Amino acid sequence: MIVVIPEGSKTDKFAAIFRYLKVNIQEANLIFDEERLYMQGMDSSQIGLFELVLIKDWFEKYEVTEPVTLGINCEILYKMLNCLEKTQKIILKFEALGDELSISFISSEKGVVDKYFVLPLMDINTQLLCIPDVDYTADLQLKGPIFEKIIEQLSIFADTVKISCNDKQVSLKTTNESSILLGQMEVNINFDDMNEYLIEEEADISLSFSLKYLNWMVQFAHLSNDMNIHFMEDTPIKIKYDIENNSYIQFFLAPQYDEF
């Protein structure tokens, strides 16, 4: 197996994925088949799920003749990726029945030194979850940095946020006990603040989520110009980022049902 990621924006995005993943995902399987690289995993609390799909056209070179699953430590992989220079491409190589992934950072630019790494592989026994297609009640798209900043600021005042959607706006409000001591914050996102907003007629959705995990998921806004968010009552929120060439990373976060 040999896979090449071209220097520039794609190597930046590949490194960024693991910079943010390692915060809550310690170990995961890289699943290469003839058509794509696939990853899926949950945080240790089992309330947040991520799914990454990078199709073969996203890569500069993608030679995978048979499916292979490589168990990795996300922290160690990111330490290697943190050594990447902007003008270097990433080359991933794996020999059948091997127990390590060879990673090379190569550049044709004078003065940029090539680097070579060996990533030990792990046996990670985890079952992939079937993620069903869902017709959500409300779908919105907005610039990622807008929602990222909102969530970061809400996190200052509470650890839980109540998100309400109706045919007029989307509202986010801190409503847990810590608001008594730290104050309260509310944000209303109107139609003019969004790229798109679709909601079923007369729908009125109200869900509460952990700001800790939302704050983790919105860090990936740097991967895409836009963020797609989907809501349905009693259903995990879905946050999706498109990463060129029909590739994407998406997250699902289960709602909380605490009394407020």
Structure description:
- This protein has 260 residues and is α+β, with helices and mostly antiparallel strands.
- It is 18% helix and 40% strand.
- The protein contains five helices and 18 strands.
- The strands form three sheets. Strands 6-2-3-4-18-17-16-10-14 form a nine-stranded antiparallel β-sheet.
- Helix 1 runs antiparallel to helix 2 and helix 3 packs antiparallel against helix 5.
- The longest helix is centred in the middle third of the chain and has 14 residues.
Topology of helices and strands:
Blueprint: E1 2-5, H1 9-21, E2 27-32, E3 36-42, E4 48-55, E5 61-63, E6 68-73, H2 74-81, E7 89-93, E8 100-106, E9 115-120, E10 138-143, H3 144-157, E11 160-165, E12 169-174, H4 179-182, E13 186-190, E14 196-199, E15 205-210, H5 211-218, E16 226-231, E17 237-242, E18 248-253
Antiparallel strand pairs: 1-5, 1-7, 2-3, 2-6, 3-4, 4-18, 7-8, 8-9, 10-14, 10-16, 11-12, 11-15, 12-13, 16-17, 17-18
Helix pairs in contact: 1-2, 3-5
List the keywords.
9-stranded antiparallel sheet, Proliferating Cell Nuclear Antigen, DNA Polymerase III, Chain A, domain 2, alpha+beta, 2 domains, elongated, single chain, 18% helix, 5-stranded antiparallel sheet, 260 residues
Q: What would you say about this model in short?
A:
The chain has 260 residues and is an alpha+beta fold. It is built from five helices and 18 strands. The protein folds into two domains: 119 residues, DNA Polymerase III, subunit A, domain 2 (DNA Polymerase III, Chain A, domain 2), CATH 3.10.150.10; 116 residues, Proliferating Cell Nuclear Antigen.
